[in-house]
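Troubleshooting entry. The earlier prediction with zinc ion gave an output that would not parse, so I re-checked the input for stray whitespace and re-submitted. Clean input:
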Amino acid sequence: MALLAYGAPAGDKPLEPMTIERRAVGPRDVQIDIAYCGVCHSDLHQVRAEWGGTLYPCVPGHEIVGHVRAVGAEVSRFQVGDVVGVGCLVDSCRTCASCEEDLENYCEKGWTGTYNGKTDDAPGHTLGGYSQQIVVNDHFVLKISHPVDQLAAVAPLLCAGITTYSPLRHWNTGPGKKVGIVGIGGLGHMGVKLAHAMGAHTVAFTTSESKRQDALDLGADEVVVSRNPDEMAAHVGSFDLIVNAVAASHDLDAFTALLKRDGTMCMLGVPEHPHPSPNIGALIFGRKAIAGSLIGGLAETQEMLDFCAEKGIVADIEMIRIQDIENAYDRMQKSDVKYRFVIDNATLAA
Ligand code: ZN
Ligand code: ZN
């Protein structure tokens, strides 16, 4: 069956309506009617060939929520009508050490992305959530227990949510810990909400005074304008963890100085131009670490969704029609969104 989708035929072309096919529902497959899909910065970079290696046509989207339309004969975890999600991964080897530890996101053979990943399905690479339906192996489908009227705002949890949740958990965020979140955008706004909900003293770092009240509204206990040296100096040597969501090249030493002994700064973005080399002496005198983290495994993503449902956490979103996607990309590049665009997939048929 031909399905409606939005994608780009080439890296220098805007997204346009197109029709795609999905594979027939296999024994372990879940067929999902997509209700909403979040718009991630990765979508823009990938579809515009800014990372290289983009396969066309490219249909982006890996923050997918919807309803189960059909399940294969061997699927027992899901039933028709269930509310479900799909994030950044739709397959992995399932046998390497990382997969065996529920860390499919670090699969040693390389996981299959929800779009632009290699697959036997036509056209030879995966197509993402800017489409009416998707067919996914049940291991990579997540249960959503939020109220259904929050479904659109749940979509960004599938990438922005898990990408910040995983490092917060890995470095033991909780009561008694002081945690910083650098950059209050799609990722950072989730980081502030999650760190606060985990019980940490949460400090938001922003470059703009104008975001101070917004960050407090998200749940930050304190806000530091990182361009203000006096504000930064007040926090030297005090953080257990800093989650740095800024991908643009910047001075890391300004933040490692704020870590306690044995503190860690975890980077979430890959800069287009490298950060200035960090001051290694500043790390040695204090046994500090600069680390990285990539999304999360399926079990942890389910844990994050359940945690968010229990705590009433969703993303702050602006809903768009699929026809407005290019405008949304332009605004996203200017950080002109609070804090995530989400596509209403019903508009594909408009
Ligand atoms: Zn993403
Ligand atoms: Zn693996």
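This one parsed fine. The domain at 2-159+314-349 is CATH 3.90.180.10 (Quinone Oxidoreductase; Chain A, domain 1).
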